[in-house]
Amino acid sequence: MSGLATGEGLQLQLKKTIKTTRETAFAAWTKPEILRKWFGPGQMLPVEAEVDLRVGGKLRFVIEGVSPRSGQHMQITFEGVFREIVPVKKLSFEWEVAGDPGESTVVTVEFFDVEGGTEVVLTQDRIPNEELLGRNKMGWGGMLEKLAELTVR
Fold first, then answer.
1. How far does CA 8 lie from the centroid of its chain?
2. What percent of the chain stands above pLDDT 70?
3. Residue-by-residue DSSP string for the chain
């Protein structure tokens, strides 16, 4: 994990090796029926997942459940717009919590062949402060763990 400061905020980078092919890992990020099984921190999962997989296409997730941070039952809506799509290699999208003030962040997910599977590298740029960096590290990190468990089964 890194927390580098850039001219436009902080950067988070997480890496996780998943025991599956790049094709399967990429599908897990782009197919709503798979996203509903893992996309959310802790016990939270999407009750809605929409993916318009094209540059300029929108993505929207409504996740619900007990927050691992607060222990409270919550519903959170995330929205974004795809900036770049390279099938089975890279996804990049604008990312924001619906209703939150401020600029959106940019999330890039890259998929690399490695011994034993696929390394998923998630980079989030333009994070406005250390508090959000910490929350995002916990959220994305937990989600990558859930993805690894899902694809190993």
1. 20
2. 95
3. -EEEEETTEEEEEEEEEESS-HHHHHHHHH-HHHHTTT-SSTT-EEEEEEE--STT-EEEEEEEEE-TTT-SEEEEEEEEEEEEEETTTEEEEEEEETT--SPPEEEEEEEEEETTEEEEEEEEEEE-SHHHHHHHHHHHHHHHHHHHHHHH-
Chain position carrying tokens 């996780």: 16
How far, in Å, CA of 48 to CA of 91, rounded?
20
CA distances in angstroms from 54 to 18, 75, 76, 96, 134, listed in the order given: 25, 27, 24, 18, 30
Which pLDDT tens digit goes with each residue over 103-149? 899 999 999 999 999 999 999 999 999 999 998 999 999 999 999 99
Model pTM score: 0.91
Using CA atoms, how far apart are residues 89 and 109, in angstroms rounded to an integer? 8
